[in-house]
């Protein structure tokens, strides 16, 4: 085959994979991404929106109510969760202040900007500022009442993401229970969620469990790779990954408090691509495998072993590496992308050229980048692959 023909064929192959990827990713309705902005080198929201569109991501979460982001995301298909910063909780316990906040931070942008949730604080129950706990539920009640008053409560849910540290027990999943010191406030919190039909959001990171105990925890188990898994001795349910076990532990803990029907969603999960010397497992390879395997599971619209027919919504952390985050090196290296729009690592993303001013146009193509241990693919994905191969060989024969 001569060089021009090779070039033409390669170009055709790229575009076939590109459009295959778009079609595959379009099916992942349960996947969102966290768009953190603790950095001084991120692209403007306009470029971020282009990247989300290219990736076919339709759900995002931000950690404030940045007017520039809310305005930019108007009249798009992005479902957006916004956040009340922790330091605002005390103020928003007051009903009038909450009405004013909703009137100035939410109402001007809705419905053009599809705000679907308000996260009231983040990991309040495990924050070092213990006084925040006393403000959380009153602030949530006030914000919800303000949404009712402004006619928005039927469109926007109010909740608050929790770290896994709210659990006293998480293994086995059926033993899941909340810390005893949180019993009273957790009862109030769960009652609010049940009354308003809002989800329990959890920030779940199997990476932390592995980092703290790598000699006893299987890396394959936390990365969703093929492994023996574990069987809960009481429910006899089989778990082949830690993330689903963590979610089911939270479900059991909620049920023990008398709120069995609450939906549990993952507001954050991810894996760092770089860490300090004592941050075992924080590597590019592990980060790519973890997020790639989550993407593959989301293509199947899976539920957990305890709720297999209930699709598990997951928000990956995070879209970008954030260079101004405090703490260990890992904190600044959870992003799928670098601030210039290039991929931090490949999770099955095909990317065109990028520059310092415009993020790469990209799409998902899991069929071409799946790790060999992950064998299950969706039926539609198989059909797409067969069609791609048919067209590809037809083109070769024609040439």
TrEMBL record:
Keyword Electron transport: no
Keywords assigned by UniProt, alphabetized: Glycosidase, Hydrolase, Membrane, Plant defense, Signal, Transmembrane, Transmembrane helix
EC number: 3.2.1.39
Gene Ontology MF: a single term: glucan endo-1,3-beta-D-glucosidase activity
Family, similarity comment: Belongs to the glycosyl hydrolase 17 family.
Lineage, highest ranks first: Eukaryota, Viridiplantae, Streptophyta, Embryophyta, Tracheophyta
Record's protein name: glucan endo-1,3-beta-D-glucosidase
TM region(s), chain numbering: 377-397
Listed GO biological process terms: carbohydrate metabolic process; defense response
Taxonomic source organism: Solanum lycopersicum
Catalytic EC class: hydrolase
Signal peptide: 1-30
Reactions mediated catalytically: Hydrolysis of (1->3)-beta-D-glucosidic linkages in (1->3)-beta-D-glucans
Superkingdom field: Eukaryota
Family annotation (PANTHER family): GLUCAN ENDO-1,3-BETA-GLUCOSIDASE BG1-RELATED-RELATED (PTHR32227)
Pfam families on file: Glyco_hydro_17
GO cellular component term, pick one: plasma membrane
């Amino acid at each position: 085959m001569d060089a021009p023909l090779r070039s033409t064929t390669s170009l055709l192959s790229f575009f076939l994979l590109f459009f295959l990827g778009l079609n595959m990713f379009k099916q992942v309705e349960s996947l969102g991404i966290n768009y953190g902005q603790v950095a001084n080198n991120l692209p403007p929201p306009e470029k971020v929106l282009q990247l989300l569109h290219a990736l076919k991501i339709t759900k995002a979460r931000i950690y404030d109510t940045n007017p520039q982001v809310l305005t930019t995301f108007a009249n798009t298909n992005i479902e957006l969760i916004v956040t009340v910063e922790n330091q605002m909780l005390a103020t928003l316990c007051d009903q009038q202040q909450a009405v004013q906040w909703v009137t100035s931070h939410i109402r001007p942008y809705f419905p053009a900007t599809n705000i679907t949730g308000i996260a009231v604080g983040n990991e309040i129950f495990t924050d070092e500022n213990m006084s925040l706990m006393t403000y959380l539920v009153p602030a949530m009640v006030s914000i919800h009442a303000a949404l009712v008053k402004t006619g928005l409560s039927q469109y926007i849910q109010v909740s608050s993401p929790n770290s896994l540290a709210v659990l006293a027990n998480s293994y086995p999943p059926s033993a899941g229970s909340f810390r005893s010191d949180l019993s009273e406030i957790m009862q109030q919190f769960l009652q609010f969620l049940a009354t308003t039909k809002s989800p329990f959001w959890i920030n779940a990171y199997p990476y932390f469990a592995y980092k703290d105990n790598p000699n006893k925890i299987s890396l394959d188990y936390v990365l969703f790779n093929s492994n023996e898994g574990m069987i809960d001795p009481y429910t006899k349910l089989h778990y082949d990954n830690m993330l689903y076990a963590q979610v089911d532990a939270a479900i059991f803990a909620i049920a023990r408090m008398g709120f069995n029907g609450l939906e549990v969603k993952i507001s954050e999960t991810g894996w760092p691509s770089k860490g300090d010397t004592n941050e075992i497992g924080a590597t590019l390879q592990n980060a790519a495998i973890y997020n790639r395997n989550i993407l593959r599971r989301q293509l199947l619209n899976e539920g957990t072993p305890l709720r297999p027919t209930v699709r598990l919504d997951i928000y990956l952390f995070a879209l970008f590496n954030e260079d101004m985050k405090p703490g260990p090196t890992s904190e600044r290296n959870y992003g799928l992308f670098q601030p210039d729009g290039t991929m931090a690592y490949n999770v099955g993303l095909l990317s065109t050229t990028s520059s310092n001013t415009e993020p790469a146009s990209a799409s998902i193509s899991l069929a071409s980048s799946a790790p060999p241990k992950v064998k299950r693919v969706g039926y539609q994905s198989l059909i797409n692959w067969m069609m791609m191969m048919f067209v590809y060989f037809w083109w070769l024969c024609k040439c």
